[in-house]
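Quick one:
INPUT:
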């Protein structure tokens, strides 16, 4: 008889946010805590309650102040709380002090996001990237931190290196970090080699705030993509690339990438650089926006700042407002069309306006197409075949034994065409010289 393992019990959590009027108003902190609740749910915790502390400056010892910490300790005991999650980053000292007072696990937003990435990481590359980020996050917290990361306790904050890296020797952890970085550099080099052949095809990357609907849009545009889509934050971490046919001999490579989020841990940005290379190498980006979210404009700003942080310097970005079917008031959509005249408004899940999005992509790609005339011998089947496969042949004329083709081709293909023309010219020149010498002899 096969026994099915029972799922791990969900932890009971309390969320803590800090407001500082007028810099950080209470309504904004409430919105942040709503997102933190979603993160906690994704990580496997049930949020019992949330508290907001008014404080001009975080207390160096406990972040929220000793009095508030004692009040929180009473709440933790009364409601059998397993974990307290802070929306703001905590120092190692604050974590240690809070755990001593609260007598339960304490984690901050960064630690929570790292935990979700550890749960979601499926491929070897993603697991390596997450482990690197976790170790760099935990390195300054080694002193006493491993006691709540041992196998005796499960739940949030314990998945990943904490299960095996019981040693508290900083040197060993640093050696592991160095080893992981070396491994990721090798993966990045291998990825560059594998994708070198794609250079001739225009590349488009989907970017956006987490849960904006990127994977759903990927599946809608490329039905064979099979991108994992779920109403969860960071549903997918691995980049997936598929061909998107636009017109005859006009296609793009469309890549789905990891979602961004407010306060995305810097260690994650650094360790996921090789995954985010798809964004850096793309000819242009589709910025997918969940227009039904009340804070979508702040989400847009977060994405812009994250793109800047990873090194995207161009402004070749098409804004795609998704989930328009979730808007109750048509006037909102009218106002947004006026504010963002170059944007495309769609519903990926219902397939609304996808043809308009494809047309916009095609028009964007068309800007990089050039018209060229190519003259070659009729027997140059390799070049002629390449032109028919990778370009749009507008006109064809025969001139004696040559064929003159007028083509429209993407600039990325011009280098290959020129190389093939040069090779055929050299071959013809060599043949002519050989014929000349034979005649002379």
């Amino acid at each position: 008889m096969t026994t099915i393992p029972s799922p791990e019990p969900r932890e009971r959590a309390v969320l803590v946010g800090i407001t500082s009027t007028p810099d950080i108003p209470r309504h904004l902190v409430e919105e942040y805590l709503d997102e933190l609740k979603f993160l906690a749910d994704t990580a496997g915790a049930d949020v019992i309650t949330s508290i907001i502390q008014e404080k001009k400056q975080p207390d160096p010892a406990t972040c929220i102040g000793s009095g508030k910490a004692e009040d929180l300790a009473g709440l933790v005991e009364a409601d059998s709380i397993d974990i307290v999650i802070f929306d703001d980053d905590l120092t190692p000292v604050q974590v240690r002090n809070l755990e001593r007072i609260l007598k339960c696990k304490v984690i901050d937003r960064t630690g929570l996001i790292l935990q979700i990435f550890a749960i979601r990481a499926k491929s070897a590359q993603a697991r390596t990237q997450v482990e690197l980020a976790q170790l760099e996050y935990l390195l300054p917290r080694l002193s006493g931190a491993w006691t709540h990361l041992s196998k005796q306790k499960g739940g949030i904050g314990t998945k990943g290196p904490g299960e095996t890296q019981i040693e508290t020797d900083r040197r060993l952890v640093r050696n592991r970090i160095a080893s992981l970085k070396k491994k990721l550099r090798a993966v990045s080099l291998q990825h560059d080699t594998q994708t070198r052949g794609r250079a001739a095809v225009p590349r488009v990357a989907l970017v956006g705030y987490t849960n904006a609907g990127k994977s759903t849009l990927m599946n809608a545009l490329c039905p064979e993509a099979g991108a994992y889509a779920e109403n969860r934050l960071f549903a997918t971490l691995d980049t997936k690339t598929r061909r998107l046919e636009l017109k005859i001999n006009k296609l793009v490579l469309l890549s789905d990438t990891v979602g961004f989020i407010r306060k995305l841990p810097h260690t994650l940005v650094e360790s996921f650089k090789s995954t985010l290379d798809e964004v850096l190498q793309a000819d242009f980006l589709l910025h997918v926006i969940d227009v039904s979210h009340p804070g979508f404009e702040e989400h847009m700003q977060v994405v812009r700042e994250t793109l800047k942080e990873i090194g995207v310097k161009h402004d070749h970005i098409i804004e795609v407002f998704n989930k328009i079917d979730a808007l109750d008031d048509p006037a909102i959509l009218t106002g947004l069309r006026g504010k963002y005249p170059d944007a495309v408004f769609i519903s990926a899940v219902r397939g609304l306006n996808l043809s308009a999005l494809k047309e916009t992509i095609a028009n964007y790609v068309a800007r990089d197409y050039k018209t060229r005339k190519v003259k070659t011998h009729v027997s140059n089947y390799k070049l002629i075949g390449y032109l028919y496969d990778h370009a749009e042949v507008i006109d064809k004329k025969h001139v004696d034994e040559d064929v003159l083709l007028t083509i429209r081709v993407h600039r990325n293909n011009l280098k290959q065409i020129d190389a093939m023309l040069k090779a055929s010219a050299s071959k013809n020149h060599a043949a002519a010289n050989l014929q000349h010498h034979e005649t002379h002899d």
